[in-house]
């Protein structure tokens, strides 16, 4: 469980985060939802320690992370897997080496054969077992994200952070990535935090959703509660999509979202 | 200015605390050394051979006094190349080549969040990325400077004998005249200092790139200019203190 308590962060005199308090639970897909420029990425960078909050604290399973000793912070960081908004693969290494890299660096006593098995397992998990020899520049955006996920989960992380895992992907690939993250989270019981502004992900995998608006948390709850949330800013955000409006209408007329999801596959 | 210098020192310090395993850094250092060395052999060879040739021809052109023996030409070519031209010109050429590649490489890693990715994994990114580049440069610069010395003396020999300015025997006589071994030591000290200046300054510029592709280009350019200025100042300071 990750607890965020009263985190403030400003750049110069522009306040970005104005006292965010929330918790991300273990074994769940925790979504951070919010418009562009509301400070979602800044919050994530504060959590993983790439930025230092001005005020406030972040606690990983009871261990304080912010302002703690470097050694303790390093220990926590070794349990963190992160998928960056632009994947951030090491472009001097091929796919296999990218996934192997955290293992090489963080678990030096692992033998070469064990490492190879683990990398092959992770690549298989994301459906890229054939792409090991490719360089990052030869991959499509969706493949890069999947390699990024494989690299993040390779060293058995306890915390997984994904910054917009499905931005810039087509709806089908984007659902596949969402499902992958969801399965991994529940399979290994890890604490996953996903930043998104994709309503589709919200209704698919949002075990716990935090809505950020202008640097503040305005709402949190589950995917079943979000369509009935009574926060005006959130309502405006959600129902800006006509797809969601249609879904809501169907639900009010007595249908259920599960049925709609089943429909297309019946037709085919 | 003072602030930048302070930040530079802190950067160097951050590189040395919490280091990764020695084996990892050593392997990375060898990789970088091979990269820097092999890539630069050709350009260093061409530049130094021509510098030696031009030095020889110009000295021959200026020495018209019949009382000065022709072997003086060889002697002067040796002194000039070993003391000044080989270490300094080679380092300036390498500042352009190695400096821009270090700054460009690190700058790209910064803006594409690869450095952040290392940090999130709990790896000291400046230690992992920068220290091997600096050590790699410190290993290869002196080797390239030795190559440059040999080739510029050879270049002088070829230019001198082929143009008929003197005989081979006169040149070799000049080369062997009152040789001071310390000069070579001094040149190697210079090359180590220049290696450090070029790699550390370029790494600093690249590592702290902010922005996008345009800024990476700008970082490379400033890295090269600042490295060259640092080499020239360092050259003066070393000549003043060690000679
Ligand atoms: N390093 C920085 N220096 C100054 N300002 C910054 C920095 N990083 C972010 N900001 C500012 O913080 C605000 C929030 O940025 P952030 O990247 O968190 O947005 P976001 O919610 O992730 O948006 P998006 O959904 O578009 O990714 C922006 O206005 C941005 O200009
Ligand atoms: Mg963002």
From TrEMBL, chain A:
Q: Where is the ABC transporter domain?
A: 2-239
User: Which PANTHER family did the record assign?
Assistant: INTERMEMBRANE PHOSPHOLIPID TRANSPORT SYSTEM ATP-BINDING PROTEIN MLAF, PROTEIN TRIGALACTOSYLDIACYLGLYCEROL 3, CHLOROPLASTIC
Specify the protein name: ATP-binding cassette domain-containing protein
Q: Which InterPro entries match?
A: AAA+_ATPase, ABC_transporter-like_ATP-bd, ABC_transporter-like_CS, P-loop_NTPase
> Listed GO molecular functions?
ATP binding; ATP hydrolysis activity
Q: What's the source species for this entry?
A: Hymenobacter jeollabukensis
Classification via Gene3D superfamilies: P-loop containing nucleotide triphosphate hydrolases
Which PROSITE patterns does the entry mention? ABC_TRANSPORTER_1, ABC_TRANSPORTER_2
UniProtKB/TrEMBL annotation, chain B:
Q: Which UniProt keywords apply?
A: Membrane, Transmembrane, Transmembrane helix
Q: Name one Pfam family in it.
A: MlaE
Q: Which residues cross the membrane?
A: 35-61, 82-103, 134-159, 180-204, 224-242
Superkingdom of origin organism: Bacteria
Its ancestry begins with: Bacteria, Pseudomonadati, Bacteroidota, Cytophagia, Cytophagales
Q: Name one GO cellular component term.
A: ATP-binding cassette (ABC) transporter complex
Q: Name one GO molecular function term.
A: phospholipid transporter activity
Protein name stated in the entry: ABC transporter permease
Protein source organism? Hymenobacter jeollabukensis
């Amino acid at each position: 469980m990750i607890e965020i308590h009263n985190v403030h962060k400003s750049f110069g005199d522009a306040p970005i985060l104005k006292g965010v308090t929330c918790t991300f639970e273990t074994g769940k897909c925790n979504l951070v939802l919010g418009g562009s420029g509301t400070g979602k990425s800044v919050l994530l960078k504060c959590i993983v320690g790439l930025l230092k909050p001005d005020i406030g604290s972040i606690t990983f399973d009871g261990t304080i992370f912010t302002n703690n000793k470097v050694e303790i912070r390093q220990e926590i960081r070794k349990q963190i897997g992160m998928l960056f908004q632009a994947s951030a693969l090491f472009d001097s290494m091929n796919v296999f080496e990218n996934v192997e890299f955290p293992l090489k660096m963080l678990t030096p006593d692992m033998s070469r054969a064990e490492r190879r098995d683990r990398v092959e397992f992770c690549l298989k998990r994301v459906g890229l077992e054939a792409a090991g020899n490719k360089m990052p520049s030869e991959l499509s955006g969706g493949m890069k994200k999947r390699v990024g996920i494989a690299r993040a989960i390779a060293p058995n992380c306890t915390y997984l952070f994904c910054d917009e895992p499905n931005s810039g992907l087509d709806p089908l690939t984007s659902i596949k990535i969402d499902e992958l993250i969801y399965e991994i989270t529940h399979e290994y019981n890890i604490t996953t935090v996903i930043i998104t502004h994709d309503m589709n992900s919200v209704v698919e995998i949002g075990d716990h959703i935090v809505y950020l608006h202008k640097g503040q948390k305005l709402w949190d709850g589950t995917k079943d509660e979000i369509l009935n949330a009574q926060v005006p800013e959130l309502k405006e955000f959600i129902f800006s999509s006509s797809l969601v409006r249609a879904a809501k209408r169907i639900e009010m007329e007595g249908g259920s979202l599960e049925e709609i999801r089943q429909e297309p596959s019946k037709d085919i | 200015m003072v602030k930048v210098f302070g930040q530079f020192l802190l950067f160097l310090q951050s590189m040395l605390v919490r280091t990764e395993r020695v084996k990892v850094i050593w392997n990375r250092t060898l990789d970088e050394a091979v990269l820097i060395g092999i890539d630069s052999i050709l350009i260093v060879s061409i530049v130094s051979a021509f510098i030696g040739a031009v030095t020889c021809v110009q000295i021959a052109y200026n020495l018209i006094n019949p009382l000065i023996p022709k072997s003086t030409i060889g002697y002067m070519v040796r002194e000039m190349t070993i003391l000044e031209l080989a270490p300094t010109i080679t380092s300036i050429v390498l500042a352009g080549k190695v400096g821009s590649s270090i700054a460009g490489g690190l700058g790209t890693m910064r803006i594409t969040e690869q450095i952040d990715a290392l940090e999130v994994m709990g790896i000291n990114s400046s230690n992992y990325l920068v220290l091997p580049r600096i050590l790699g440069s410190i290993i290869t610069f002196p080797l390239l400077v030795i190559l440059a010395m040999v080739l510029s003396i050879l270049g002088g020999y070829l230019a001198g004998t082929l143009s008929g300015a003197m005989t081979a025997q006169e040149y070799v006589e000049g080369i062997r005249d009152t040789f001071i071994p310390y000069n070579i030591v001094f040149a190697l000290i210079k090359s180590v200092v220049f290696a450090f200046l070029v790699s550390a300054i370029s790494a600093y510029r690249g590592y702290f790139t902010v922005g996008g592709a345009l800024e990476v280009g700008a970082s490379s350019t400033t890295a090269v200019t600042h490295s060259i200025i640092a080499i020239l100042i360092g050259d003066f300071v070393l000549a003043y203190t060690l000679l």
